Structures are given as structure tokens and as C-alpha cells.
Task: inverse folding
């Protein structure tokens, strides 16, 4: 009979099972192991520096994003682009698309300009455009080739005439950009400068609004508008910022005949603070008291027209 010990007659039972009958399962050992070096603050997902890192990467990826071809779809937009002489690499027609006057016109213009016409299946057009609202026709437009603004200054200098440029700040509507390009071309300007970020770019919409002048008037894109303004100043340009409450008005400023850069901001935000502080002159446009502001392209046209008049009078 087994011998008992303790209260209640609890006994010690022998067993033939090998090894420990109860243990930590290795948890204590794992807990004692080192966890390695502490991650950097920017690598910890809960840390504010991690969020700042992600935002920095997002901005940089947008800044250096490769320009891609653009597909304009729909019968009216395609015909408008062709009439505006927007550069195009191919005209796509979906097989079996019902013919009408606009489709025939698009094909005729493409043939006259030696633009290749390709017939494709509907599912291919759906995949290329991302939707089925293309009306069976699409025009592929290559990425716009931006100029270098230093080269633009050199061109104006080589032409033996005072340069006249427009810098757009905070302009995000491509129609405004296209209209400004058209005005600069109409009044003898030498180019338009836009920032890489937070700005409209030369898309098919801008091409159409420019009425084809984007094919001849160069547009440059810069990383820093303030630094570009300072470089123009170092080259002998007077930088005129358009904003309300300026010390000059379009009636009193007479420097339009000299090398000049006109800085135009958006109708809502105006010119950025730092850019405004670096302008040589802040000028406003006289207008009826109850009208608060002008559209950017309208303001550009008014100033460019007056400066062109001053240049004609100085000859």
C-alpha cells in the first residue's frame, strides 16, 4: 500500500512518463532573449516622424513622377484637339463604331496630318481608357516637352529684345494655363513658367484652350518659383507681382518696355507669401469697385496688352 503524506491523504504518485510534467513551454526563455536595436523614430508606425517620412516620400514621388501619354476620348474633344493641332501619335477607332460627321472629320484630319489610324476591339479601348465612355474614338497625345527657363532667357537675349515672361503661381486649372499661353503668344511674350508641384500642366485641355499656340510658345517647369524669381532678377529682369493693393497700378507702371517677369497667382489664393516678398513691384489692375478680382488669364491678358503697347511706343 502506498504511503500517504499531508492533509486529506494526498499521495505521491509515481509515473513512468519521461521529462517534465509541467513547465513554461519555453516562454521564460523567449522572454529573456534580446529584441534587437530600437527602431528609428521614423520607422515606428505610431510615431509622428513616421507620418512625416511618408508625406516626404509622397511629395518626392509626385515631383519626379514620369510623364505619361494622355488619351483624349469622345468625338467632340478629339475633333477639337485635332483642329487645335495638338500633337498626337495615334487615332484609335473601335471596330464596328457607328460612323457620323464627327468621326469622319476626325479621320480626315488625322489622314491630312499623317497621324496613324488604328482599329482596335472595344475591350482594348475600355482597358486603355479605364471606362466605356469613349464613344468609340480616342486620340493619344505624347507627354509635353517642357523647356528650360535658362534657355528661354538666352533666346530672348539672342533675339536682341527685352524679354517678357509670365510665371504662374498656384494656378491649377489647365484652361487658365492654356488661356495665359495664348495671351503671352498674342502680345509678344517669350514664355510661361510654371512650378512642378501644385500647378496645372500642359495637358490636352490646356492645348485646346491655347488654340494651338502651345505648339509655338515654350513653357518651362521649375522646382522652386522663389528661386526662379531671384535668378530672373540677377539677369536684370524687373519682377512684377499682380495683387490687390499694390503700390502701382497698371495706369502708373511704365516699366513694361524693359525686361520684365509678370507673376500671377490664383483668383482665390493670389501669389504665395514668399514669392510676393521677392517681387520688385506689386501692381494691381484698376477696375470697378464692386468687382473683387479677375480670372488669372484675364488679368494676364490685360497686363500683357498694356506692356505690349509700351513696347510699341518705345520703338
Result:
Amino acid at each position: 500500500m502506498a504511503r500517504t503524506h499531508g492533509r486529506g491523504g494526498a499521495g505521491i504518485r509515481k509515473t513512468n512518463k519521461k521529462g517534465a510534467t509541467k513547465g513554461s513551454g519555453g516562454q521564460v526563455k523567449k522572454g529573456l532573449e534580446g529584441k534587437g536595436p530600437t527602431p528609428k523614430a521614423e520607422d515606428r508606425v505610431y510615431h509622428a516622424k513616421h507620418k512625416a517620412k511618408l508625406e516626404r516620400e509622397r511629395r518626392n514621388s509626385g515631383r519626379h513622377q514620369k510623364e505619361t501619354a494622355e488619351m483624349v476620348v469622345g468625338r467632340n474633344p478629339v475633333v477639337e484637339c485635332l483642329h487645335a493641332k495638338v500633337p498626337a501619335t495615334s487615332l484609335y477607332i473601335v471596330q464596328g463604331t457607328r460612323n457620323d460627321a464627327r468621326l469622319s472629320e476626325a479621320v480626315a484630319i488625322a489622314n491630312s496630318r499623317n497621324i496613324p489610324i488604328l482599329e482596335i476591339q472595344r475591350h482594348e479601348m475600355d482597358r486603355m481608357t479605364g471606362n466605356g465612355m469613349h464613344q468609340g474614338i480616342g486620340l493619344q497625345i505624347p507627354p509635353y516637352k517642357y523647356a528650360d527657363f535658362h534657355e528661354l532667357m538666352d533666346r530672348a537675349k539672342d533675339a536682341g529684345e527685352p524679354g517678357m515672361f509670365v510665371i504662374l503661381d498656384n494656378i491649377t486649372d489647365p484652361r487658365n494655363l492654356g488661356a495665359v499661353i495664348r495671351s503671352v503668344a498674342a502680345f509678344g511674350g517669350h514664355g510661361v513658367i510654371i512650378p512642378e508641384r501644385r500647378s496645372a500642366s500642359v495637358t490636352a485641355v490646356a492645348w485646346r484652350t491655347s488654340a494651338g499656340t502651345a505648339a509655338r510658345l515654350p513653357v518651362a517647369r521649375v522646382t522652386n518659383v522663389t528661386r526662379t524669381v531671384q535668378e530672373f532678377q540677377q539677369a536684370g529682369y524687373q519682377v512684377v507681382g499682380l495683387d490687390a493693393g499694390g503700390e502701382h497700378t497698371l495706369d502708373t507702371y511704365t516699366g513694361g518696355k524693359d525686361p520684365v517677369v509678370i507673376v500671377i497667382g490664383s483668383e482665390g489664393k493670389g501669389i504665395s507669401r514668399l514669392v510676393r516678398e521677392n517681387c520688385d513691384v506689386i501692381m494691381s489692375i484698376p477696375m470697378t469697385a464692386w468687382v473683387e478680382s479677375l480670372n488669372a488669364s484675364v488679368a494676364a491678358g490685360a497686363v500683357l496688352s498694356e506692356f505690349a503697347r509700351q513696347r510699341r511706343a518705345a520703338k
Summary: The two ends are 130 Å apart (CA to CA). Confidence is low (pLDDT under 50) at residues 1-12, 61-65.
